[in-house]
Write a structure and sequence with these properties.
With 320 residues, the chain is of the alpha/beta class. The chain has ten helices and 14 strands.
Length: 320
């Protein structure tokens, strides 16, 4: 499809294509084109569909972006839930930012080199994946709030027990608040950074009710602010982990979290933080700490030591 579909209404005028034996469909391009292909290709209900919808040319901005995003979600990710997960969806990746949303299931995280599953998803033939971003020059931060609200009004979060979350700290706050209202079933929370944890604390512990109250396992990547090429692991970073002590403590205190998994390149430094900071030791009194190493050169491919999240997506009560 070389030209961009002019508007949402015109999609129904395109011819139908019947592909009754189609097993997997991937579409990528401007949101209107992606929806036109998904809408006009007739396929069996068991066909998995992944979409990466991006406005590559911000000079062409349709007024139908919210409606297109909702229909893409309905016809791709949401549609595949029933045949792919006949009982329930228990493992979900969500990435939220001011100008995009990404959804993926556990099959979009293939293990590489035998041991290290990626934190961020990739499009693959076995998984359901949706990326939607207007990326327009006049896009207002938080303008996608209606789309996010639409996503969380569906049944997508109702059975999720393992949530892998990527949410920049400076994102539009209401997007996170919508997620909080659907966090009761989550038992395992995996975060891409301590900055995301900071965002959770800022939004989740305000006038709104606490989120993730039934959480039992928290995994988080702890970056350092200096590069190991210039300083050794045993050197004290300047103004580093102190910024993260308060949010970690604030998040642990009101919740009965059994295990905290902290992944870092700088084991010696963070071991000192966890054992010498009085606030941290008090907060960890009822929580088992697992301080785990990652390879700095492979920091996009984290060794998430989580059998619950990387096996079959199911959560078992009391599992370590």
């Amino acid at each position: 499809m070389s030209e961009t579909v002019p508007d949402l209404a015109s999609i129904s005028s395109y011819p139908l294509v019947h592909l009754p034996n189609l097993k997997y469909l991937v579409v990528q391009g401007p949101p209107e084109n992606c929806l036109a292909l998904v809408d006009r290709i007739q396929r069996p209900s068991t066909c998995l569909v992944s979409a990466k919808a991006v406005n590559f040319d911000d000079s062409h901005v349709t007024q139908d972006l919210e409606a297109i995003g909702e229909q893409l979600f309905t016809q791709t990710f949401l549609r595949t839930l029933e045949p792919t997960y006949p009982t329930k969806l228990t493992w979900l990746f969500i990435s939220l930012s001011y100008d995009s949303v990404t959804l993926a299931d556990k099959h979009c995280f293939p293990t590489i080199r035998g041991t290290m599953p990626r934190f961020c998803p990739i499009i693959c033939i076995a998984g359901s994946y949706l990326f939607f971003s207007p990326l327009s020059s006049d896009y207002v931060p938080g303008g996608g709030i209606h789309l996010i609200e639409f996503l969380f009004q569906t049944e997508i979060m109702q059975d999720v027990t393992t949530l892998r979350l990527q949410a920049p700290q400076l994102m539009y706050p209401d997007e996170l608040r919508l997620l909080f209202w659907h966090s009761d079933t989550v038992r395992i929370l995996e975060l891409d950074s301590a900055d995301t944890l900071v965002g959770l604390c800022k939004q989740g512990n305000s006038s709104y009710s606490l989120s993730f109250l039934n959480l039992e396992i928290l995994s988080v990547l702890l970056y350092s602010r200096y590069a190991p090429a210039f300083e050794g692991e045993d050197d004290h970073p300047v103004d580093n982990g102190s910024d993260y002590v308060d949010p970690i403590v604030s998040f642990l205190r009101p919740r009965k979290i059994k295990i905290l998994r902290a992944y870092t390149v700088f084991l010696s430094y963070w071991r000192r933080v966890f054992t010498e900071d009085a606030r941290m030791t008090e907060a960890l009194r009822a929580t088992k700490l697992k301080l785990l190493p990652i390879d700095y050169e492979e920091d996009n491919n984290l060794f998430w030591d989580s059998e619950e999240s990387m096996s079959d997506g199911e959560y078992a009560e009391g599992d370590d």
